[in-house]
Amino acid sequence: MHAPETPIREIGERALVQLLRSRIPEGPGVVAGVGDDAAAVETSPLTLVTTDSLVEGVHFRRDWSPPRLLGRKALTVNLSDIAAMAGLPRYATVSLCLPPDTAFGFLDGLYDGLLERGAETGVHVVGGNLAASPGGIVIDVALLGQGDRVLRRSGAQPGDLVVVTGTLGAAAEGLRLLAQGARLGSEGQLEDTGMWTASSAAALSRCLRAQLDPVPPLAFARTLSENNVVHAAIDLSDGLSADLLRICEASGLAARVDAAAVPVDPLAAGLERARGGDALALALHGGEDYELLLAVAPDRFDALRDLAVIWDLPLTVVGEFVAGEPRVLLTTGAGTEPLPPLAHEHFGAPGLPAVPEA
């Protein structure tokens, strides 16, 4: 085995591929996995396909992200997409673009996280690619899933409730904490509090983990395909303001949101108040929560809540869908006004930065 600090250029592509291949087991349904020109896998008649990339300097920084947690997140962001359509994740391919001076320990740790998260969720890595990068690292994962009845963004109906799972804002707060020097270790333990004192350790750990190792409600989402209680769904990757607008646009509806009902993560809110910030803005626009946003008929909400109880998952009604041109309206004590989608935009629109400067 190579020393963790060994640059991958000293190991070479063929040896790296062999090392990775030796780590990847073949699972049920894999007819041909790593080692052929393409994978051959068994799926149901309805196959779901998604892909997502984590780009160094846009989605992560190496000095902020333990490789194991980064590997877990690279698969998780794709798992969240399959979950939003009530699918079952099955097979993944992983393509990496790496600078030649990348330490072998980084690659080894990254695969620790990828394979660990795959084992937790029943996902088998069946292929991928390695390429040299003249710039930063790019981690690209493609995920195949299957489903019998998929949820889409276009099914919301006038009068449906706007429902979110879990709490919002912790991941965005975690990003700000990273910029202030707070750090997690490879096992998810708090290693550095940054500018904060040890008395804030529980809140720091919660928010950093939400950013670096998110945990979408995957099991709950899978049950939605078996129970006809939800009309439309999307995962909250870009923030409530942006993702709710996407459902509105796909369904041809408007939505009203009650600011007082938005489930701001209480630990994130406490940290944000301490710095004099706006915790509600984090929950509305911060993104990377990887919770679910659902359109639910009012007479089916109790049935949905009964399902959520099985998984100890909080559900919150934050508003309703109404007839009208696609837009989101926010009601506060001062009245009702349009809620702009202020998520990060990769090609220059305003919004919260993906990776802020330290």
Could you describe the 3D structure shown?
With 358 residues, the chain is of the alpha+beta class. It has two domains: 8-146, PurM-like, N-terminal domain (60s Ribosomal Protein L30, Chain: A); 153-338, PurM-like C-terminal domain (Phosphoribosyl-aminoimidazole Synthetase, Chain A, domain 2, Alpha-Beta Complex), CATH 3.90.650. Helices cover 32% and strands 24% of the residues. The chain has ten helices and 15 strands. It has a seven-stranded mixed sheet. Strands 3-6-4-5 form a four-stranded mixed sheet, with helices on one face. β4 (88-98), α3 and β5 form a beta-alpha-beta unit. α2 (67-84) packs parallel to α3 (104-121), α4 (170-179) packs across α5 and α4 crosses α8 (266-274). The protein is globular and about 65 Å long. The chain starts with 12 loop residues before the first helix and ends in a 20-residue tail after the last strand. Mean pLDDT is 92; it is low at 349-353.
Low-pLDDT runs of 5+ residues are 349-353
CATH-defined fold name of the largest domain = Phosphoribosyl-aminoimidazole Synthetase, Chain A, domain 2
User: What is the overall number of helices?
Assistant: 10
For the record, the count of structural domains works out to 2
SSE succession: HEEEHEHEEEHEEHHEHEHHEHEEE
Overall morphology: globular
The CATH level-2 architecture of the largest domain is identified as Alpha-Beta Complex
State the helical fraction: 25-40%
Distance between the termini: 35 Å
Please give the order of strands in the largest beta sheet.
10-12-7-13-11-14-15
CATH homologous superfamily identity of the largest domain: PurM-like C-terminal domain
Beta strand count: 15
Q: How large is the radius of gyration?
A: 21 Å
Protein structure class = alpha+beta
Could you tell me the strand content as a percent range? 15-25%
Instruction: Characterize the largest beta sheet: strand count, sense, and whether it forms a barrel.
Output: 7 strands, mixed
